[in-house]
Specification:
alpha+beta, two-stranded antiparallel sheet
C-alpha cells in the first residue's frame, strides 16, 4: 500500500499538487559534480515522465514486499504524468501558467549503487542519458486547492503577479548537495520573467529542514494554517511562507 506524504497536497490522485517532504536524511550523500548539473524548465514528455517517477518515489512509501509493487508504482507515475502534462500545457482550470523545473545530471556521473532510482528517473536529451534528481512546479495562480492563500499582491494584479511552489522534491540519494537550493533559485528567475512579484510555498510546522532551506532562499512566514483546518483535512498543520521578488 502507498503511504501519503505528510507534506503532500491531498486530493484526487489525478490532480494532486504535492509539497516537498524535505527532511534531514540519514543517507550519506555522495558528492556530485555540480558543474554537470542542469536546472531548467521542461516540456519534453520523456523528462516529464522522469520527473513524475521521481515524485512518486519521493512522496509514496511502498512496501518492498508488496505484491506487484512495480505495477502499482507505474500506475501512480502514469497518473502523475498525465496530471503534470495537463498543468504544464495550460489545461488545468484555475492556473494561469505552470512550469516544471527539473535538476538533472548525466547518468554516467552517478553511482550505480541505486540502479532502481536511476532507471526509473532516466531520460535522453538527444545527446546523452540524464537523470532527474530534483523537481518542482512553479504555479502562477491565486491559490492552490485546499491550501492557505497568500495575501500579496492585492488588487487586479493578483491573477498574474502571484505564484506558488509545489511538488518540490530531491532524490534522497542526493540530499545535502544543494539541489533544492538551486531549484528554488531557478524558479525565482522564471517567476521574474513571468512578472511575478510575490512567491509562496507551504511547509509543515514540524519540517525544520524545509523551513531552513526556504528561509535560506529568502522566504519568511506570512501565516499559519488554523489547527481546525489541519484536523479537518487530516494532515499536519502548515505554514505559508512568502518571498518578495524584485522587479526589473
Amino acid at each position: 500500500m502507498a503511504k501519503s506524504n505528510t507534506d503532500g497536497f491531498r486530493s484526487s490522485p489525478s490532480c494532486r499538487l504535492r509539497l516537498r517532504p524535505i527532511s534531514a536524511s540519514h543517507i550519506l550523500a555522495p558528492a556530485i559534480d555540480r558543474s554537470a548539473m542542469v536546472i531548467s524548465e521542461t516540456v519534453s514528455e520523456d523528462e516529464l515522465w522522469a520527473a513524475a517517477c521521481l515524485r512518486v518515489r519521493t512522496f509514496n512509501e511502498l512496501n518492498p514486499s508488496s505484491y506487484n509493487i512495480q505495477d502499482h508504482r507505474r500506475y501512480l507515475a502514469e497518473r502523475e504524468f498525465e496530471a503534470l502534462k495537463e498543468r504544464v500545457s495550460g489545461k488545468r482550470e484555475g492556473f494561469t501558467r505552470v512550469s516544471c523545473v527539473n535538476a538533472t545530471l548525466p547518468l554516467s556521473q552517478l553511482s550505480t549503487s541505486s540502479e532502481d532510482f536511476f532507471s526509473a528517473c532516466k531520460f535522453s536529451d538527444g545527446i546523452e542519458d540524464r537523470v532527474v534528481v530534483g523537481s518542482l512546479d512553479l504555479n502562477q495562480c491565486r491559490w492552490l486547492p485546499d491550501e492557505i492563500a497568500g495575501t500579496k499582491p492585492e488588487g487586479f494584479s493578483v491573477d498574474f503577479a502571484r505564484a506558488y511552489l509545489s511538488n518540490v522534491c530531491v532524490a534522497k540519494e542526493l540530499h545535502r548537495n544543494g539541489v533544492g537550493y538551486k531549484l528554488i533559485e531557478k524558479s525565482k528567475v522564471v517567476a521574474r520573467e513571468w512578472g511575478i512579484t510575490d512567491m509562496y510555498v507551504h511547509v509543515t510546522v514540524v519540517n525544520e529542514a524545509a523551513k531552513r532551506l526556504y528561509m535560506k532562499c529568502g522566504f519568511e512566514q506570512e501565516s499559519a494554517e488554523p489547527a481546525w483546518q489541519a484536523r479537518y483535512l487530516n494532515r499536519p498543520q502548515r505554514l505559508l511562507l512568502w518571498l518578495s521578488l524584485p522587479t526589473s
